[in-house]
Amino acid sequence: MPRLPVAISLGDLSLTLAAVGLGLVAGAIVLALGGADPLRGVADILLSFIYYPEIFLVRSSILVMTALAFAIPLRMGFFNIGAEGQLYAGAAAALVAALTLPYTPLPALVAAAVAGGLMGLFAGLLRVKLNINEVLSTIMLNWIAFWSLRYIVVEYLADPVYSHLTLEVPLEARIPWIPSELLPPPLQEHLRSGFPMIVFVSLATALAAWTVIYKTVPGLRYRFAGANEYAAASRGVAVGRVKLASMAAAGVLAGLGGALLILGHSYRIDSTLSGLFGYGFEGIGVALIGRNNPLGIVAASLFVGDLASGSERIQVTARIPAELADVVNGAIIFTVAALSGLRYTGIPRRLSSIAGRLG
Prior knowledge:
By secondary structure, this protein is an all-alpha fold. Helices cover 72% and strands 1% of the residues. It folds into two domains: 9-36 and 325-343; 48-319, ABC transporter involved in vitamin B12 uptake, BtuC, CATH 1.10.3470. It has a two-stranded antiparallel sheet. It starts with 9 loop residues before the first helix and ends with a helix. GO terms for molecular function: transmembrane transporter activity.
């Protein structure tokens, strides 16, 4: 069996950087078509984390979780499009647990992990046992989770004063922020609301995922089964169990992402779920940009999180509507993710072969 790389190779890094460059060009073109200064717009996007650090840090943290939820099953040949619904389930479970046991964030985190994990496991069972395509099942489960949560929010968890919002997470059940006065002086000016602790949780999760995948025996079995499931089965690896475990782990991670968002940032869910929407789908692009490597995903999450804060920034500096700002972000992410995903098609290898023959 060929040795699987622990880190992203130099070639992968070069392709990713090239994809990022072309993605920014695509964003600049959209800005120019919208009548804005493309160079200033791109610069504002890249430096937006300075002006909107809270948006940058929170969004990047949640994207780490949903990107891992896509990347881990992908090695097993599963396209988990369900991180969105698994995040909804985790957010709902975390809120209910926090309102029921408002003493510490731990019960809410456990409830979120269980809720998301069960959704992921269910989709995995449908694929492994009944051969039902996971793309279809997870998309349907996303909608089931979306409308179920909206019903629960409106009917059972609504705040009697602000009916479009749920009851608020009690103070004791929240994941705290580090007060700005405890931060180093250079950060105090930019992080006036403090530093969100969920950043450390997401980084620790990514590091733990990397360690398990590349430094443990279960991780070796997982990589072996992903590289060649028939060879792995012949060596005694229970491939079916590994597949189910990958989908369950994905659900746990996405569910925890929902919990981190509710316990560490918003503390409520709105009736339209606008505060939760999109993290799961964006995580797919982040995973592709990060080459499905947990450490690469952290870097990719920072990039896409910066784009999110950049969307807010260019609405002010370039005086463009929010819709156009979202188009700019979409053009950048689509271009980068599409080019980053080229390696899975074998096209770069074929081009290298053709160039070698011509040379």
